[in-house]
Amino acid sequence: MRKPADCTTMAHIRAEIDRLDDDLVRLFAERAGYIDRAAEIKAGVDLPARINDRVEEVVQNVRRHAETYGLPPDLVEKLWRRLIDWSIAREESRLGPDSLRKG
Protein backbone atom coordinates (compact mmCIF):
# COMPACT_ATOMS: atom_id res chain seq x y z
CA MET A 1 0.00 0.00 0.00
CA ARG A 2 1.41 3.32 -1.11
CA LYS A 3 0.24 6.78 -0.12
CA PRO A 4 -0.70 8.98 -3.09
CA ALA A 5 2.46 11.05 -2.68
CA ASP A 6 4.56 7.87 -2.81
CA CYS A 7 3.21 6.87 -6.22
CA THR A 8 5.74 7.75 -8.88
CA THR A 9 4.18 6.04 -11.90
CA MET A 10 0.74 5.53 -13.36
CA ALA A 11 1.19 1.81 -12.67
CA HIS A 12 1.50 2.61 -8.96
CA ILE A 13 -1.62 4.80 -9.10
CA ARG A 14 -3.61 2.16 -10.98
CA ALA A 15 -2.57 -0.59 -8.58
CA GLU A 16 -3.70 1.46 -5.58
CA ILE A 17 -7.00 2.39 -7.22
CA ASP A 18 -7.61 -1.29 -8.06
CA ARG A 19 -6.82 -2.22 -4.44
CA LEU A 20 -9.23 0.40 -3.13
CA ASP A 21 -11.94 -0.68 -5.58
CA ASP A 22 -11.63 -4.23 -4.27
CA ASP A 23 -11.95 -2.92 -0.69
CA LEU A 24 -15.00 -0.83 -1.63
CA VAL A 25 -16.77 -3.77 -3.29
CA ARG A 26 -16.02 -5.95 -0.26
CA LEU A 27 -17.48 -3.26 2.03
CA PHE A 28 -20.58 -2.91 -0.17
CA ALA A 29 -21.04 -6.68 0.01
CA GLU A 30 -20.74 -6.53 3.79
CA ARG A 31 -23.29 -3.69 3.86
CA ALA A 32 -25.64 -5.78 1.70
CA GLY A 33 -25.49 -8.53 4.32
CA TYR A 34 -26.84 -6.07 6.88
CA ILE A 35 -29.52 -4.95 4.43
CA ASP A 36 -30.60 -8.58 4.01
CA ARG A 37 -30.74 -9.04 7.77
CA ALA A 38 -32.74 -5.81 8.12
CA ALA A 39 -35.28 -7.22 5.66
CA GLU A 40 -35.61 -10.37 7.78
CA ILE A 41 -36.15 -8.34 10.95
CA LYS A 42 -38.56 -5.92 9.24
CA ALA A 43 -40.62 -8.84 7.93
CA GLY A 44 -41.03 -10.12 11.47
CA VAL A 45 -42.30 -6.79 12.80
CA ASP A 46 -44.12 -5.68 9.63
CA LEU A 47 -41.95 -2.65 8.86
CA PRO A 48 -41.64 -1.29 5.32
CA ALA A 49 -38.37 -1.31 3.41
CA ARG A 50 -38.32 2.49 3.17
CA ILE A 51 -38.39 4.37 6.45
CA ASN A 52 -38.02 8.00 5.43
CA ASP A 53 -36.70 9.27 8.77
CA ARG A 54 -33.93 6.67 8.63
CA VAL A 55 -33.11 7.53 5.01
CA GLU A 56 -32.60 11.16 5.97
CA GLU A 57 -30.56 10.19 9.03
CA VAL A 58 -28.22 8.11 6.84
CA VAL A 59 -27.90 10.97 4.35
CA GLN A 60 -27.02 13.47 7.08
CA ASN A 61 -24.45 11.03 8.49
CA VAL A 62 -22.70 10.59 5.14
CA ARG A 63 -22.75 14.33 4.46
CA ARG A 64 -20.98 14.84 7.78
CA HIS A 65 -18.45 12.10 6.93
CA ALA A 66 -17.85 13.68 3.53
CA GLU A 67 -17.03 17.00 5.16
CA THR A 68 -14.70 15.27 7.62
CA TYR A 69 -12.75 13.67 4.77
CA GLY A 70 -12.74 16.72 2.50
CA LEU A 71 -15.22 15.44 -0.07
CA PRO A 72 -18.11 17.45 -1.53
CA PRO A 73 -21.18 16.61 0.61
CA ASP A 74 -23.60 17.14 -2.30
CA LEU A 75 -21.78 14.59 -4.45
CA VAL A 76 -21.55 12.05 -1.63
CA GLU A 77 -25.25 12.56 -0.86
CA LYS A 78 -26.13 11.93 -4.50
CA LEU A 79 -24.10 8.71 -4.54
CA TRP A 80 -25.55 7.56 -1.24
CA ARG A 81 -29.14 8.21 -2.28
CA ARG A 82 -28.51 5.82 -5.19
CA LEU A 83 -27.07 3.28 -2.74
CA ILE A 84 -30.07 3.73 -0.43
CA ASP A 85 -32.50 3.26 -3.33
CA TRP A 86 -30.66 0.07 -4.34
CA SER A 87 -30.75 -1.13 -0.72
CA ILE A 88 -34.49 -0.48 -0.44
CA ALA A 89 -35.10 -2.31 -3.71
CA ARG A 90 -33.07 -5.22 -2.34
CA GLU A 91 -35.20 -5.27 0.82
CA GLU A 92 -38.41 -5.04 -1.21
CA SER A 93 -37.29 -8.05 -3.26
CA ARG A 94 -37.48 -10.00 -0.01
CA LEU A 95 -40.39 -8.21 1.67
CA GLY A 96 -42.52 -7.33 -1.34
CA PRO A 97 -43.18 -3.74 -2.41
CA ASP A 98 -44.04 -1.32 0.39
CA SER A 99 -47.26 -0.43 -1.43
CA LEU A 100 -48.51 -3.99 -0.85
CA ARG A 101 -47.55 -4.16 2.83
CA LYS A 102 -49.79 -3.32 5.73
CA GLY A 103 -49.03 0.07 7.13
Q: What's the overall average pLDDT, rounded?
A: 94
As a percent range, the share of strand residues is under 5%
The proportion of residues forming helix, as a percent range, comes to: over 70%
Q: What's the count of strands?
A: 0
Unreliably modeled segments: none
N→C terminal distance: 50 Å
Number of domains: 1
Number of H- or I-type helical stretches? 3
**Main sheet attributes: strand count, strand direction, barrel closure:** none
Structural class: mainly alpha
Under CATH at level 1, the class stands as Mainly Alpha
Under CATH, the topology is which? Chorismate Mutase Domain, subunit A
The CATH architecture category equals Up-down Bundle
One letter per element, helices H and strands E, the order comes to: HHH
- In CATH terms, the superfamily is Chorismate mutase
Large-scale geometry: elongated
- Rounded to the nearest angstrom, the radius of gyration is 18 Å
Question: What report would you give on this structure?
Answer:
This protein has 103 residues and is mainly alpha-helical. The protein has one domain: Chorismate mutase (Chorismate Mutase Domain, subunit A). The chain has helices at residues 10-45, 52-68, 73-95. The chain is elongated, with a radius of gyration of 18 Å.
Which keywords apply here?
103 residues, 0% strand, elongated
List the helices and strands and how they pair.
Blueprint lengths: L9 H36 L6 H17 L4 H23 L8
Helix pairs in contact: 1-3, 2-3
Summarize the structure.
The protein has helices at residues 10-45, 52-68, 73-95. The protein is mainly alpha-helical.
